[in-house]
Amino acid sequence: MSTTGRLTILYVVSSPHSGSTVLSTILGNHPDVFFAGELYEIPEPAWIPGVTCSCGLPAATCPFWQPVRARFEQKANVEALHRDEGTFRNWKSLPRVLLSRKSGSGEFAQYAGRLGALVRALADQSGKRVVVDTSKGATRGRAYLALRSREVDVKILHVVRDGRGVVLSRKNREARVPGPSGGYRPAAALRYSVLWVGANLAYVLLFGLRREQYLRLRLEDVTRDPDRAFERIGQFLGLDVSQLRSQVRAGATFPVGHVIAGNRLRLTGQVRMQPELSDTRDQLPPGDRRLFSIVAGWTARLFGYS
User: Fold this and answer.
1) Domain presence at residue 74
2) pTM metric for this prediction
């Protein structure tokens, strides 16, 4: 990609455990797309000693990330970005950003500028015109939107997974009690049901009215009809994704590339779109299913889930 060409930032938002890493990794195998992982982890922990890139090398010596950092530091300060992430990474910062009349200037504008410097460094080093960030934070999405210009376009891809599958996955990964009992922490299903509702509704309210910049996909639609799903993504980004569609349909595996931040799936080196990702809802215990129905059933129906 020419460094003077228009850069597109594809910001992927979702509730955790919704398949965004797998989908974004596949997109990152398009010749015009670079999948960067969850960039909120830059500079820490991604740029501290001991972190490994998905290529297998330490991030500090990775032939891709070394020059990325050098390019970034020509335009912005690493410590300042670290302070920004401490200020704006948490969802608690969102109301202040939305209510502040100065959200287009000052500290928040500087944060957006540093994010822009990082994404531009990634685009220049990779030679790709689309950079994918799966950080998910709503405030970061607002910062990216502040960068829109003749040189930078911003697209929001909202990935929704059936909340019952999300609750099950999060319980198994995050809520198991250490020790031989193998049980779950109390109220885990309630907590994850509430978080699923809150995150997905927030994304719709914050980004959903920007029709040319917002696309919502259900994970189940991607796994069951990848041709149609990737066709929609291609139209959204202005990309020919016919090759990716054929590979997904054939059950191909996709290399992760150079990712130093985000889901530990990146360390497996390759991913595959698995239809079973969308078939876990019935594995949720009956009591948890009833609880989810009470807490999140109305939201699930808004997204087309029975």
Assistant:
1) yes
2) 0.92
Gyration radius from the chain CA atoms = 19
CB 15 within 8 Å of CB 143: no
Torsion region of 136: left, alpha or beta (phi above 0 gives left; psi -120 to 50 gives alpha): left
Is residue 45 reached through a cis peptide bond, with omega within 30 degrees of 0 on the bond before it?
A: yes
Domains contained in the chain, number: 1
Sheet holding 7-14, edge to edge: 33-35, 130-133, 7-14, 152-160, 214-218
- Report the CATH number that the domain containing residue 50 is assigned in CATH: 3.40.50
Report yes or no on 286 lying in a domain. Answer: no
**Would you write out the chain's pLDDT as a tens digit for each of its 306 residues?**
444 468 999 999 999 999 999 999 999 999 999 999 999 999 999 998 889 999 999 988 999 999 999 999 999 999 999 999 999 988 888 888 887 755 555 889 999 999 999 999 999 999 999 999 999 999 999 999 999 999 999 999 999 999 999 999 898 887 666 555 566 777 889 999 999 999 999 999 999 998 899 999 999 999 999 999 999 999 999 999 999 999 999 999 999 999 998 877 777 878 888 776 556 667 888 999 999 999 999 999 999 998
Give, as one character, the DSSP assignment of residue 268: G
